[in-house]
């Protein structure tokens, strides 16, 4: 079963790796060794507004002071690393920067609205950490990652490949009293940036020279090697389950290697490739009949019909129509398998 977030590891996701390591290490350092320094990283909008402590907008919105928030946000960043692989580190960083800046503005507006409408001043002390951009990433996650049903429970309720991510986001959403303000700010800022509202994606973006500088200096530090194709089998499983998992793994590896070979041949020849030859398990095999000692002409099976709805969903994710058709035909119209292969290649 492929997950919605692609292969394991942080390959081609150096920014996601840095966001996992650096803030988490600083959160642990503040919680265990330097608790007296935590007051410098409190996200206090009252101090920003009345005492002009602008630096709190930076320090208070990078490092989580609650270790539960650190754990949940780190897991979400790891699952959202798929967007860095798809868009590239520069575009992914621009999205995080844009949502981080916009969410600070929405935090101010929501806190002022709470104080004006209900007289609640305690809402000025919001949860610290890099939380708003994490909530903002739920917008492209909801819009661009296909929903594939895994299991069905209690009639209309079903478990999909995205259920665990939503549960994790709900856990983060309910971890504090006023974290819902940060969550709403993040979701609204993510919606504004993803929909290119008011052209904010052109204003709040990472310049090319800065992207090249960090690519030259920091990317070698946080880059990860390409994961091996061999997956470890879960311990405690029975021998039959291990054999079944091994066979499924080998079958996926064979299919993907044949798919990659077919794409290279199509690029070299400039035409369509024979999917019946490359994927005999996924097609009706040609039968050779012998009648009266004479070999009959092999019947060519009709091409597999591909759902236009699934093709449209893959094209909305940024893939070309040709690649979408090839992936769906190769995976026997399995949208989850086709999506994960296109994301990894």
From TrEMBL:
<keyword id="KW-0812">Transmembrane</keyword>
<dbReference type="GO" id="GO:0004252">
    <property type="term" value="F:serine-type endopeptidase activity"/>
</dbReference>
<keyword id="KW-0732">Signal</keyword>
<dbReference type="Pfam" id="PF00627">
    <property type="entry name" value="UBA"/>
</dbReference>
<feature type="transmembrane region" description="Helical">
    <location>
        <begin position="116"/>
        <end position="143"/>
    </location>
</feature>
<feature type="transmembrane region" description="Helical">
    <location>
        <begin position="164"/>
        <end position="188"/>
    </location>
</feature>
<protein>
    <recommendedName>
        <fullName>Ubiquitin-associated domain-containing protein 2</fullName>
    </recommendedName>
</protein>
<dbReference type="GO" id="GO:0070972">
    <property type="term" value="P:protein localization to endoplasmic reticulum"/>
</dbReference>
<dbReference type="InterPro" id="IPR041928">
    <property type="entry name" value="UBA_UBAC2"/>
</dbReference>
<dbReference type="InterPro" id="IPR035952">
    <property type="entry name" value="Rhomboid-like_sf"/>
</dbReference>
<dbReference type="GO" id="GO:1904153">
    <property type="term" value="P:negative regulation of retrograde protein transport, ER to cytosol"/>
</dbReference>
<dbReference type="InterPro" id="IPR015940">
    <property type="entry name" value="UBA"/>
</dbReference>
<dbReference type="GO" id="GO:0016055">
    <property type="term" value="P:Wnt signaling pathway"/>
</dbReference>
<feature type="domain" description="UBA">
    <location>
        <begin position="305"/>
        <end position="345"/>
    </location>
</feature>
<keyword id="KW-0879">Wnt signaling pathway</keyword>
<keyword id="KW-1133">Transmembrane helix</keyword>
<dbReference type="GO" id="GO:0090090">
    <property type="term" value="P:negative regulation of canonical Wnt signaling pathway"/>
</dbReference>
<comment type="function">
    <text>Restricts trafficking of FAF2 from the endoplasmic reticulum to lipid droplets. In association with LMBR1L and E3 ubiquitin-protein ligase AMFR, negatively regulates the canonical Wnt signaling pathway in the lymphocytes by promoting the ubiquitin-mediated degradation of CTNNB1 and Wnt receptors FZD6 and LRP6.</text>
</comment>
<keyword id="KW-0325">Glycoprotein</keyword>
<keyword id="KW-0256">Endoplasmic reticulum</keyword>
<feature type="transmembrane region" description="Helical">
    <location>
        <begin position="92"/>
        <end position="110"/>
    </location>
</feature>
<keyword id="KW-0472">Membrane</keyword>
<dbReference type="InterPro" id="IPR009060">
    <property type="entry name" value="UBA-like_sf"/>
</dbReference>
<dbReference type="GO" id="GO:0005789">
    <property type="term" value="C:endoplasmic reticulum membrane"/>
</dbReference>
């Amino acid at each position: 079963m492929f997950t919605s977030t692609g292969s394991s590891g942080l390959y081609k996701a150096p920014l996601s790796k840095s966001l996992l390591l650096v803030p988490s290490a600083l959160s642990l350092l503040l919680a265990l060794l330097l608790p007296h320094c935590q007051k410098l990283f409190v996200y206090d909008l009252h101090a920003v507004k009345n005492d002009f402590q602008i630096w709190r907008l930076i320090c208070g919105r990078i490092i989580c002071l609650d270790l539960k928030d650190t754990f949940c946000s780190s897991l979400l960043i790891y699952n959202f690393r798929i967007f860095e692989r798809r868009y590239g580190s520069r575009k992914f960083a621009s999205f995080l920067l844009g949502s981080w800046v916009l969410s600070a503005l929405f935090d101010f507006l929501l806190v002022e609205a709470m104080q004006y409408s209900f007289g609640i001043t305690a809402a000025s002390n919001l949860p610290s950490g890099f939380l708003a951009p994490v909530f903002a990433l739920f917008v492209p996650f909801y819009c661009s990652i296909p929903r594939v049903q895994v299991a069905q429970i209690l009639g209309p309720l079903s478990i999909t490949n995205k259920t665990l991510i939503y549960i994790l986001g709900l856990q983060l959403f309910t971890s504090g009293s006023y974290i819902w303000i940060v969550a709403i700010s993040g979701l609204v800022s993510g919606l504004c940036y993803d929909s290119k509202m008011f052209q904010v994606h052109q204003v709040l973006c990472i310049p090319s020279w800065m992207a090249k500088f960090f690519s030259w200096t920091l990317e070698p530090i946080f880059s990860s090697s390409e994961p091996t194709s061999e997956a470890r089998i879960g311990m405690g499983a029975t021998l039959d389950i291990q054999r079944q998992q091994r066979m499924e793994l080998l079958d996926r590896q064979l299919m993907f290697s044949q798919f990659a070979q077919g794409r290279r041949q199509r690029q070299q020849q400039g035409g369509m490739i024979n999917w019946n030859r490359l994927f005999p398990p996924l097609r009706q095999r040609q039968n050779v009949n012998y009648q009266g000692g004479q070999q009959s002409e092999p019947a060519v099976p009709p091409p597999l019909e591909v759902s236009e709805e699934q093709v449209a969903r893959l094209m909305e994710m940024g893939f070309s129509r040709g690649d979408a058709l090839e992936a769906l035909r190769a995976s026997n119209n399995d949208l989850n398998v086709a999506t994960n292969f296109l994301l990894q290649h």
